[in-house]
C-alpha cells in the first residue's frame, strides 16, 4: 500500500482541500408564472415545461 515518504505541510494540504466548495444551484425563471425553477425541470407552481402543461397542480 502506498504510504507518503514525507509529511505533507499544512499549506499543501489546505491547497488540495480548497476546491471542495459548494456552489449555488443555477436557477431559471418560468416563462409562464416567473417562479424560479431548476433548468430542464417542470415548474412546480404552474406545472409547465417547454411552454406545455405536463403536471396537474391544484
Report on this model:
- The structure is a single chain.
- The protein has a two-stranded antiparallel ribbon. It has a two-stranded antiparallel sheet with strand order 3-4.
- The protein is rod-shaped and about 60 Å long.
- It starts with 9 loop residues before the first helix and ends in a 5-residue tail after the last strand.
- The protein has one helix at residues 10-17; strands at 28-29, 36-37, 48-49, 52-53.
- The protein has 1 helix and 4 strands.
- β1 and β2 form a beta hairpin.
- The protein is of the alpha+beta class and 58 residues long.
- It has a domain at 24-58.
Q: Please give the count of helices.
A: 1
Secondary-structure element string: HEEEE
Question: Radius of gyration, Cα only, in angstroms?
Answer: 23 Å
For the biggest sheet, the summary is: 2 strands, antiparallel
Helix content: 10-25%
Strand content: 5-15%
Structural class, please?
alpha+beta
- Kindly report the average pLDDT value: 93
Principal-axis shape equals rod-shaped
Record the strand order, biggest sheet: 1-2
Give the low-confidence spans.
Answer: none
Give the termini distance in whole angstroms: 59 Å
Summarize this structure briefly.
The protein is of the alpha+beta class.
Key words describing this protein structure:
two-stranded antiparallel sheet, alpha+beta, 58 residues
Topology (SSEs and partners):
Blueprint: H1 10-17, E1 28-29, E2 36-37, E3 48-49, E4 52-53
Antiparallel strand pairs: 1-2, 3-4
